[in-house]
Amino acid sequence: MPSRPRSPMTGESTRSKPPWLRRRLPIDPGYERLCSLIREQGLTTVCREAPCPNQFECFARGTATFLILGDRCSRACRFCAVGHGPEAPPDPEEPRRVAETVRMMGLSYCVITSVSRDDLTDGGAAHFAAVIRTIRHHNPHTLIEVLIPDFLGDPDALATVLAARPDVLNHNLETVARLYPAIRPGADYRRSLELLARSKTLAPGMATKSGIMLGLGETGAELSRLFLDLRDTCCDILTIGQYLQPSPDHAVVDRFVPPEEFDALRQKAERLGFGAVAAAPFVRSSYRAEALFRHIRTATPGGPEASPPSR
To answer: Is the pLDDT score of 227 beyond 80?
Structure first.
């Protein structure tokens, strides 16, 4: 891990992908079936909007991360391929369509995320809650993970989502504190940590989760600080993946992190007390989400409880 801080720049990347980031895309009829179903329901997935390198694998497995509240974001983070600009009002029929799609897919676990909607008074929290409740009504045995924005730090918005009782509350830090002004100009590192900590206070039996990207210019010392900050919130699950530049208008890749460094970071995070850690170049925040959640459930019967960080 480099020790000299660097700042991300935009432009065409001159770095060619190393062998561990090259893989053949699978051909599977399950992929096309799921794509057709999602289109028929008028829904969007972050898998295709992002675009996620794991979408073929996940779609073939019959899993997807649903993107609610439209496909236009209030913010323009320099790592994200999701479009930004004028947003439409929330679709009141979307909760029903998502719940029906979950039923038709026969999902035992679903992930719901959204764009940031700073234009809405509650940031879209009530819509999140409606989606959770409607899924529960139609699919009472389905586990639900929500990957939420920061709601500009509004505690009432967070409470609205938690009152709907998701099984996992995910909020990504994305990168180290120093890089926020360049990478996440509309977000705030401490605000995100406070959201995770408050979630544990309001719902101590619920699992919390966060994810980060490597290769944006972070240092080893900064990652160590981030791990400790997350453990101070009693975060249960951590995902760590490689940042890949979506276009020349986005931040360039500072470096491609080799698989052995991901393994070392996973081991370090586990020693600090994270209940489940996924760390590899192609890992994204909802990759194999059900397996990570079930791992902490098995390790701590009755559900995860807030615990002090292990240092």
So the answer is: yes
